[in-house]
Amino acid sequence: MERGELQQFPLLLKQSRNNPETVPVSVRRGFIRHMNALQKEMKSRFADIDEYVSKELWVLDPFIAKVEDVEYLDCEDELTDIQADSLSKKYFQEKGFKKFWIVKGPSLAPKLTLHATTRIILPFSTTYLSETAFSALVAIKTKARNTLDVHNDFRLAVTHITPDIPSLAAGMQV
Fold first, then answer.
1. pLDDT (mean) for 42-68
2. Dihedral through CA 15, CA 21, CA 25, CA 30, nearest 10?
């Protein structure tokens, strides 16, 4: 942005008719201030992520990890067993860490596998449900609404259960 490169801001680039110099300096400064504030906020929110990632590097490659890396889990023997198994190492190199922990991990190192899958691997793959629910809520809230309570509509939007309309309607008739 400071150098006049607007590729990361397609709408601003389009509005400036592909000529970054037509964007007023005050607008550029506003964007830069906002981006700097956003960067500062992200660093403060995720300050501990580096410590967390460095503590859990054994998940990404258990074959180069040190026994001390898993002392807090009391699983040093499991890590040693994994590192001694040459077939597992070959499988790890061919399939990658996710497949390794899911397929080979439970039989070789149940405690390490439980920690690796539930604390490290699984949380990042389950954002789909959150994103789906958020999209449903946005769709409900953007429509013209005559009530502020979206609970029932939201529940219907995110469930996979299809309502039995005929029996519901029959129950409503008096």
1. 83
2. 50
